Amino acid sequence: MAVSSSSSSNIVNCLFFESQAEDAANFYTSIFPNSSIGDVARFPGDGLDVHKQPANSAMAVVFKLNGHPFTALNSRPAEVQFTEADEVDHYWDKLSEGGDETKQMCGWLKDKFGLSWQVVPKDITKIMTEAEPDKRWRAMQAFMKMRKIIIQDVIDAVEGKGEKEEA
């Protein structure tokens, strides 16, 4: 599950696949009433050595099943003022308490019961589905290096800040 701060629902179910996210979303939406595919973010041609997915294949698929929001993600993990950051910190801190810190990556954590959660700021979904491909790629590169997703660091990467330091 992904915890987001969207106004319609605070919990978005997140399904994790190696490469079948789009096929699975199409399959599930064909079964349940009041279901539809929303945005589909696609992997760029660059970075194949990192994401290991064919260019233009689905990276993230946003969809609804019987009106409930879902996100399907394709990835090949090595293992698996009030701000939005405050909300992410709240859920991350509470859910990760007593969990396995070695399982934390790309916003994913394992709680004390062994259940996996992905805590992502709502802006990540917007960036991954609406931004230009090069900006989506920079966002993906940024959060793949993180345990807990720090939205400002992702936004800085999308905007190209810090590229000179990394070069």
From TrEMBL:
It comes from the Eukaryota. Residues 10-120 form the PhnB-like domain. InterPro entries: 3_dmu_93_MTrfase, Glyas_Bleomycin-R_OHBP_Dase, PhnB-like. Coiled coil: none annotated. This is PhnB-like domain-containing protein. It comes from Vermiconidia calcicola. The lineage of its organism: Eukaryota, Fungi, Dikarya, Ascomycota, Pezizomycotina.
